[in-house]
Amino acid sequence: MTGQTIKVAVNGALGRMGQTVLGAVEADPATIAVGGADSAASVDTVAVPGGSPVMLAATLADLLSKADTDVVVDFSNGAGAVDTMAAATSAGVRVVSGSTGVPPGELERFGSIAAEKGIGIISASNFALGAVLMMYLAEVAGPHFQYADLIESHHEAKIDSPSGTALSIADAARAGRDNDFTYNEPEKVTLDGVRGGLMGGVNVHSARMPGRMARHELVLGTSGQTLSIIHDTINRDCYMPGVLAAIKRVMTLTGLMLGLDQVLGLRDPAKP
Prior knowledge:
Elements: E1 6-11, H1 16-27, E2 31-37, E3 45-46, E4 54-57, H2 60-66, E5 71-74, H3 78-90, E6 94-97, H4 106-117, E7 120-123, H5 129-141, E8 147-154, H6 164-175, E9 197-199, E10 202-208, E11 214-222, E12 225-233, H7 240-250, E13 255-258, H8 260-263
Parallel strand pairs: 1-2, 1-5, 2-4, 5-6, 6-7, 7-13, 8-10
Antiparallel strand pairs: 3-4, 8-11, 9-10, 11-12
Helix pairs in contact: 1-7, 3-4, 5-6
């Protein structure tokens, strides 16, 4: 990272996540918010929580033509992330993206473009430090236990079940194993689906209810003992330490980095 303050623009600046990112960037002494882009823009400035309004544009390309920017942060969707990477790399600007659903091959394509330009792109499906550490711990512990149940609960408006994070945790728990977890097959099932979905021997259960943002609990069991790993997401602020860590890391990166675990040094970038 350079010794200068990192100038950050946010794509999707009018949304709740965009506003949270702008506020976190403004509050960190190493970063400063310089602008925002949002397709719903109808004025030329956007409020920054805890700071002064900054420039707002309807497209990221327009914003980057006017605002001196080091890093663009994007939390949109797969198509939005592609547009963000296209506009940012064309302008020689680094990208930190939390968008999922990017079409196959696009991250690698833009990673190559970024490498040619001497800039970096970081893409991660989850920026909550605790969730990323949970996946890491699940991978470490998984080979030492026979059974695994994963219970995840989210707000009632979540459209997918189970969550993408739950699937990633289940994958992590299985990563170091030579075979699937042992699956208990009940002799009698009195309610269909009561054992949840099955993923490599991991029983995955989903709950949806008001008053909860996100919770993931992995319970591992073997002879005479269990181990529980739990992560609770209270609000969107939980993502900000990870976002800020990625903003600082991308300043010294050339090419593509996938996953916050690499940013945190939990996984060797040279290994898949």
